Amino acid sequence: MDKEKGQSAGRRLRVLFVCLGNICRSPAAEIVCRAALERAGLAAAVEVDSCGTAAYHVGQKPDARMLAALERAGYRYGGHRARVFRRSDFREFDLIIPQDESNREDLLAQARSAEEGRRVLPMSTWFADGESEREVPDPYYGGAAGFDAVVALLERSMPRLVQELRGRLADS
User: pTM here?
Assistant: First the structure.
């Protein structure tokens, strides 16, 4: 049996990207990750979503500047609407990936068990080897270059995350 097909026929992994308002970094990570999973042949085996730790933008589309940066990089908006992190996300997602340490701390503060806390990945788990950044910088108060830089950082980091997900699928 083809390993990729075996993975997609078995248990699916669910991955949740989290930033503050769910209109810049986490929806961009969701879109870039989804494309990386497609290229790796893992799209059927991994479900990806995103949310925010604050309810500032619930129901809104991603920031227009982020959508423009994603489009410049060749990605398409998939209809995402901002939502806030829910306690049930600890049960529903296998991996929760914060975009910065502040979001990680917020998530860990909501965890009511060691099991829930283990679902929140440390930042270094998914960044590219040798990457100087250890957080995804928030581009909200800057110009277009900041949004482009976020997309580029996410693109450089996805191969390592895809490798991590492939390993978890093989172990399940």
Answer: 0.92
